[in-house]
Amino acid sequence: MRPVHEPRVMILSAAVLAAVVLAILCAGCTANNPSPATTQDPAAFIAAANDCRAMNLTVTNTVGTFTYQSSTDCALLKTLVKMNESEPAEVRSLVEGKSMVCGYTKGNFDPRWVTTLIGGVEYCHGDLRDGLAQLVVFTSS
Amino acid sequence: MRKIVWLLIPLLLFVAGVSADTAPTPWSWNTYSGTYNWQVTVIEDQSACGGGVLTNQYTVPIQFNGGTAVMGDVGHGPATGSFTSGNILHIPSRTVADPPGSSTLSAYNVYFTTDCTAFIAKYTWDYSGSDGSCSGSTQLNGASSSGCPGAVTTTATTVTMLPGETPEEIPTIAPASSAYLTPDLAAAGQDLTALTTLRSAQSIADTSPQFAALANLLGQGDGLTSDQRREKIAELDQKTENELQAILVKDPYNYWANMDMAQLKKAQLKKDEYYQYLNTALDNPNVYPETAEELRQIIADQDKMIKWPSPSTSSAVSQADSEIPPIMKNLLGQDLSKIYAESKEKAKEYLFATLCEKRCTFLTDSAREAASTGGGSQ
Lengths: 141, 378
Prior knowledge:
The structure holds 2 protein chains of 2 kinds. Helices cover 40% and strands 23% of the residues of chain A. Chain A is an alpha+beta fold. Chain A is built from 5 helices and 6 strands, in the order αβαβββαβαβα. Chain A folds into 2 domains: 1-33, no CATH class; 37-137, no CATH class. In chain B, α5 packs antiparallel against α6 (271-282) and α5 (255-267) runs antiparallel to α11. Chain B starts with a helix and ends in a 6-residue tail after the last helix. Helices cover 44% and strands 21% of the residues of chain B. Chain B is of the alpha+beta class. Residues 1-24, 152-177 and 374-378 of chain B have low confidence and may be disordered. At the A-B interface, β4, α3, β5 and α5 of A face α2, α3, α7, α8 and α10 of B.
């Protein structure tokens, strides 16, 4: 005679099984993609990026707040998150909230991507690149 | 006396009308056979080879044989080419002995003026030998005062200039106005815009799949797979190049076509050709400073700017301003500090053209629309 399981027991078993599977999956995900370290030190970030290690950096200067994310596939994501209040609206509309991706080979990270506004931009791709190019047109002659 | 003046005016108008009706057709070098001597100024940029920029003048014969011609020795031996139109001689790429090594010369076009007074050409070269390797460029400026072979006078040399009027330093080959090319330019510009947008997205996908996914989330992606995108890029790449080439055959100095071709070459990662087309566009003395001013106005209009930003009103513009001199020392591997020293306005044009990726073509679309109302080859 086959044992008769109550529905409540079956649901409980399924939930436990799902929790275990989810835990295993999450453990795998975490092991492969650890949360990138965060630093406030540009030099430390440049060293990590140059070594193709994942790291996050936030810098606030006279222009505004920039975030930099390096990845294990030797790429940099630079975003001009917010410009300072003193920046005119005309400039904000060109570059604020925009980002670009810069690729490089291990050991050849261009530090100008972090230390300057427009240095090395010609090797990047994305809307921030175009915005910065347009800023150049308004520089003094 | 006054009566005589009034009598002379209709007579002058009549003569002018007759002259206009009987003006000969522009000269075409591809219909001529014979040897023609040119005074050629050869400017060789050997700065990357430690030799600086050398300028020499030679008398150089060009042997014209109808559809082909042999350019005399301008430093890299004689070169045979064929005409792609009446006054454009195409010299293919070749490798020449350059002891102790050899140099590979790029393909280039020789542009002759219709009044037979000048030609210009520029090619790049890559030297490699036991003593090392380096790259440089050679520019040829040909001049002659002999006129077109067999012609008594030519249209361009008999034009009476009004007081204060000067002939164009770099003349248009043909015709005098490029307004008729506007639809072709618009079509090519549209394709180039689509192409550069696709290329930008693909470059991000190739650089970092992780950030490409993020770009999609930020609304900066196009939703296409890499295979779909590559297929579209391959299709548009050839189409756009053909469209621009067709325009440049008709009007080699066309500013917009040269700028667009430069953008195409930049996207194709053909750096030398990028600079070649960019130089052709920006070396035209009739363009500056109007185009720089136009660019500012277009950007201002598109972004609905009430006031143009400047270094005094924006820290970002001020910072970009201060960064230009060091950046000009190495822009895509070229030292452009000389250009910056000569003209900051021109240097900014080089910088803008090199830094922009997608919106530069969008801008030139608008600019060429504005320019088309004025006509003329820019």
